[in-house]
Amino acid sequence: MTQLLLGIAPEWVPALDNFVVGRNVELLAELRHALAATQGGRTLYIWGEPGSGKSHLLQALVGQARAVGAAAVYVCAEVPEAAQVVAVDDVEKLDEAAQVALFELYNRQRESGDMLLVSGTQAPAFLAVRDDLRTRLGWGLVYQVHALNDAEKTQALLHHARARGFDLPGEVTTYLLRHGRRDLPALLATLDALDEHCLRLKRAASVPLLKEVMRA
Questions:
Q1: Taking the CA of residue 95 as centre, how many other CA atoms within 13 Å lie in the half-sphere pointing to its CB?
Q2: Residue 127 contacts by C-beta under 8 Å, 6 or more apart in sequence?
Q3: d(CA 156, CA 160)
Q4: What is the CATH number of domain 150-215?
Protein backbone atom coordinates (compact mmCIF):
# COMPACT_ATOMS: atom_id res chain seq x y z
CA MET A 1 0.00 0.00 0.00
CA THR A 2 1.35 3.43 -0.93
CA GLN A 3 1.69 5.68 2.08
CA LEU A 4 0.16 9.13 1.88
CA LEU A 5 2.59 12.01 2.18
CA LEU A 6 1.71 14.46 4.91
CA GLY A 7 3.06 17.55 3.16
CA ILE A 8 5.80 17.98 5.73
CA ALA A 9 8.32 19.22 3.16
CA PRO A 10 8.43 23.03 3.28
CA GLU A 11 6.97 24.80 0.27
CA TRP A 12 9.64 26.21 -2.05
CA VAL A 13 8.77 29.71 -3.23
CA PRO A 14 10.75 31.63 -5.88
CA ALA A 15 12.57 34.55 -4.26
CA LEU A 16 15.38 36.90 -5.21
CA ASP A 17 17.40 35.46 -2.32
CA ASN A 18 17.15 31.86 -3.55
CA PHE A 19 17.91 32.66 -7.18
CA VAL A 20 21.31 31.22 -8.10
CA VAL A 21 22.95 34.27 -9.61
CA GLY A 22 25.67 32.82 -11.82
CA ARG A 23 26.53 35.42 -14.47
CA ASN A 24 23.44 37.50 -13.67
CA VAL A 25 24.88 39.68 -10.91
CA GLU A 26 24.14 42.98 -12.65
CA LEU A 27 20.60 41.91 -13.55
CA LEU A 28 19.75 40.88 -9.98
CA ALA A 29 21.13 44.16 -8.64
CA GLU A 30 19.07 46.12 -11.18
CA LEU A 31 15.89 44.26 -10.23
CA ARG A 32 16.42 45.05 -6.56
CA HIS A 33 17.09 48.69 -7.43
CA ALA A 34 14.02 48.97 -9.67
CA LEU A 35 11.80 47.50 -6.97
CA ALA A 36 13.10 49.97 -4.41
CA ALA A 37 12.93 52.99 -6.74
CA THR A 38 9.95 55.31 -6.76
CA GLN A 39 10.61 56.80 -10.18
CA GLY A 40 12.66 56.10 -13.30
CA GLY A 41 14.10 52.79 -14.45
CA ARG A 42 10.82 51.03 -13.85
CA THR A 43 10.34 49.19 -17.15
CA LEU A 44 12.54 46.17 -17.78
CA TYR A 45 12.65 43.44 -20.39
CA ILE A 46 14.56 40.23 -19.66
CA TRP A 47 15.19 37.45 -22.14
CA GLY A 48 16.85 34.07 -22.27
CA GLU A 49 16.45 30.45 -23.25
CA PRO A 50 13.73 28.30 -21.64
CA GLY A 51 14.78 27.21 -18.17
CA SER A 52 17.22 30.08 -17.67
CA GLY A 53 15.31 31.49 -14.69
CA LYS A 54 13.11 34.20 -16.18
CA SER A 55 9.90 32.96 -14.55
CA HIS A 56 11.69 32.59 -11.21
CA LEU A 57 12.78 36.24 -11.32
CA LEU A 58 9.36 37.56 -12.34
CA GLN A 59 7.56 35.59 -9.64
CA ALA A 60 10.20 36.50 -7.07
CA LEU A 61 9.90 40.20 -7.82
CA VAL A 62 6.12 40.10 -7.53
CA GLY A 63 6.37 38.17 -4.27
CA GLN A 64 8.81 40.67 -2.80
CA ALA A 65 6.63 43.59 -3.89
CA ARG A 66 3.60 42.03 -2.21
CA ALA A 67 5.63 41.43 0.94
CA VAL A 68 6.11 45.19 1.34
CA GLY A 69 2.46 45.95 0.66
CA ALA A 70 2.53 46.82 -3.03
CA ALA A 71 -0.21 45.75 -5.43
CA ALA A 72 1.63 43.31 -7.69
CA VAL A 73 0.58 40.73 -10.26
CA TYR A 74 2.35 37.99 -12.24
CA VAL A 75 0.83 36.51 -15.41
CA CYS A 76 2.09 34.18 -18.12
CA ALA A 77 1.17 34.76 -21.78
CA GLU A 78 -1.63 37.19 -20.92
CA VAL A 79 -2.02 40.84 -19.98
CA PRO A 80 -3.51 41.94 -16.63
CA GLU A 81 -4.86 45.26 -15.43
CA ALA A 82 -2.43 47.95 -14.33
CA ALA A 83 -0.89 47.66 -10.84
CA GLN A 84 2.06 49.04 -8.93
CA VAL A 85 4.15 46.09 -10.14
CA VAL A 86 3.19 44.00 -13.17
CA ALA A 87 5.19 41.02 -14.49
CA VAL A 88 4.29 39.52 -17.88
CA ASP A 89 6.00 36.23 -18.72
CA ASP A 90 6.39 34.67 -22.21
CA VAL A 91 5.57 37.77 -24.25
CA GLU A 92 6.13 35.90 -27.52
CA LYS A 93 3.00 33.80 -26.81
CA LEU A 94 0.65 36.81 -26.82
CA ASP A 95 -1.89 36.99 -29.63
CA GLU A 96 -2.57 40.18 -31.59
CA ALA A 97 -5.19 41.54 -29.17
CA ALA A 98 -3.00 40.84 -26.16
CA GLN A 99 -0.05 42.57 -27.82
CA VAL A 100 -2.18 45.69 -28.24
CA ALA A 101 -3.19 45.43 -24.58
CA LEU A 102 0.44 45.12 -23.49
CA PHE A 103 1.41 48.13 -25.61
CA GLU A 104 -1.26 50.17 -23.83
CA LEU A 105 -0.27 48.78 -20.43
CA TYR A 106 3.38 49.66 -21.10
CA ASN A 107 2.40 53.28 -21.73
CA ARG A 108 0.21 53.44 -18.59
CA GLN A 109 2.90 51.94 -16.36
CA ARG A 110 5.52 54.29 -17.76
CA GLU A 111 3.34 57.37 -17.32
CA SER A 112 2.39 56.46 -13.76
CA GLY A 113 5.91 55.50 -12.70
CA ASP A 114 4.76 52.01 -11.81
CA MET A 115 6.89 48.98 -12.60
CA LEU A 116 6.53 46.68 -15.61
CA LEU A 117 8.72 43.62 -16.07
CA VAL A 118 8.35 41.57 -19.27
CA SER A 119 10.14 38.40 -20.32
CA GLY A 120 10.68 36.58 -23.60
CA THR A 121 12.96 34.04 -25.23
CA GLN A 122 14.65 36.58 -27.53
CA ALA A 123 15.98 40.11 -27.43
CA PRO A 124 13.38 42.76 -28.37
CA ALA A 125 14.73 43.26 -31.89
CA PHE A 126 14.06 39.61 -32.76
CA LEU A 127 10.63 39.19 -31.17
CA ALA A 128 7.78 38.16 -33.49
CA VAL A 129 5.39 40.80 -32.14
CA ARG A 130 3.89 44.09 -33.36
CA ASP A 131 6.44 46.70 -34.36
CA ASP A 132 5.14 49.26 -31.86
CA LEU A 133 5.34 46.78 -28.99
CA ARG A 134 8.79 45.61 -30.05
CA THR A 135 9.95 49.23 -30.00
CA ARG A 136 8.47 49.87 -26.55
CA LEU A 137 10.11 46.77 -25.06
CA GLY A 138 13.47 47.99 -26.33
CA TRP A 139 13.04 51.43 -24.76
CA GLY A 140 13.57 50.38 -21.17
CA LEU A 141 16.36 48.37 -19.60
CA VAL A 142 17.06 45.07 -21.41
CA TYR A 143 18.99 42.19 -19.86
CA GLN A 144 19.77 38.67 -20.95
CA VAL A 145 19.26 35.99 -18.30
CA HIS A 146 22.28 33.72 -18.67
CA ALA A 147 21.61 30.03 -18.11
CA LEU A 148 23.60 28.29 -15.37
CA ASN A 149 26.58 26.07 -16.04
CA ASP A 150 26.83 22.65 -14.36
CA ALA A 151 28.64 23.97 -11.28
CA GLU A 152 25.95 26.63 -10.80
CA LYS A 153 23.20 24.05 -11.36
CA THR A 154 24.79 21.89 -8.66
CA GLN A 155 24.63 24.87 -6.31
CA ALA A 156 20.98 25.43 -7.21
CA LEU A 157 20.10 21.77 -6.59
CA LEU A 158 21.85 21.75 -3.22
CA HIS A 159 20.11 24.98 -2.21
CA HIS A 160 16.75 23.55 -3.25
CA ALA A 161 17.36 20.32 -1.34
CA ARG A 162 18.30 22.25 1.81
CA ALA A 163 15.15 24.34 1.47
CA ARG A 164 13.10 21.13 1.40
CA GLY A 165 15.02 19.76 4.36
CA PHE A 166 16.82 16.75 2.92
CA ASP A 167 20.43 15.79 2.22
CA LEU A 168 21.52 15.48 -1.41
CA PRO A 169 24.61 13.26 -1.87
CA GLY A 170 27.12 14.37 -4.47
CA GLU A 171 26.72 11.21 -6.53
CA VAL A 172 22.97 11.86 -6.84
CA THR A 173 23.57 15.37 -8.12
CA THR A 174 26.20 14.14 -10.58
CA TYR A 175 23.90 11.43 -11.95
CA LEU A 176 20.99 13.84 -12.28
CA LEU A 177 23.06 16.36 -14.23
CA ARG A 178 24.44 13.67 -16.53
CA HIS A 179 21.19 11.86 -17.26
CA GLY A 180 18.37 14.32 -16.51
CA ARG A 181 16.96 17.09 -18.66
CA ARG A 182 19.29 20.06 -18.85
CA ASP A 183 16.93 22.91 -17.91
CA LEU A 184 16.81 23.88 -14.23
CA PRO A 185 13.00 23.69 -13.75
CA ALA A 186 13.02 20.07 -14.94
CA LEU A 187 15.97 19.26 -12.68
CA LEU A 188 14.22 20.80 -9.67
CA ALA A 189 11.00 18.94 -10.47
CA THR A 190 12.94 15.66 -10.55
CA LEU A 191 14.51 16.56 -7.23
CA ASP A 192 11.07 17.20 -5.73
CA ALA A 193 9.87 13.82 -7.02
CA LEU A 194 12.94 12.15 -5.50
CA ASP A 195 12.28 13.81 -2.14
CA GLU A 196 8.67 12.58 -2.15
CA HIS A 197 9.79 9.07 -3.16
CA CYS A 198 12.33 9.01 -0.31
CA LEU A 199 9.70 10.19 2.19
CA ARG A 200 7.32 7.48 1.00
CA LEU A 201 9.93 4.76 1.42
CA LYS A 202 11.53 6.36 4.50
CA ARG A 203 14.95 6.06 2.88
CA ALA A 204 17.78 8.51 2.18
CA ALA A 205 18.31 9.89 -1.32
CA SER A 206 20.47 7.63 -3.48
CA VAL A 207 21.26 6.99 -7.13
CA PRO A 208 19.12 3.80 -7.26
CA LEU A 209 16.10 5.74 -5.93
CA LEU A 210 16.78 8.54 -8.40
CA LYS A 211 16.82 6.00 -11.24
CA GLU A 212 13.41 4.72 -10.09
CA VAL A 213 12.02 8.25 -10.16
CA MET A 214 13.48 8.99 -13.60
CA ARG A 215 12.11 5.73 -15.04
CA ALA A 216 8.67 6.62 -13.70
A1: 1
A2: 91, 92, 120, 133, 134, 137
A3: 6
A4: 1.10.8
Looking at residue 9, its amino acid is: A
Task: Look at residue 4 in the predicted model and tell me its pLDDT.
Answer: 35
Which amino acid is present at 112?
Answer: S
Q: Is residue 42 within 8 Å of residue 113, measured between CB atoms?
A: yes
pTM, 2 dp = 0.82
Same topology, domains 25-144 and 150-215? Answer is no
Looking at domain 25-144, which of 3.30.70.260, 3.40.50.300, 3.30.360.10, 1.10.10.10 is its CATH number?
A: 3.40.50.300
In angstroms, the Cα distances linking 163 to 13, 17, 58, 156, 188 are 10, 12, 20, 11, 12
For the chain, which residues make up each domain, given as ranges? 25-144, 150-215
pLDDT band at 92 (very low <50, low <70, confident <90, very high): very high
What is the predicted pLDDT for the residue at 5? Answer: 39
Average pLDDT rounded to a whole number, residues 169-182: 92
**SS3 category, 141:** strand
Strand partners, 203: none
d(CA 215, CA 210): 9
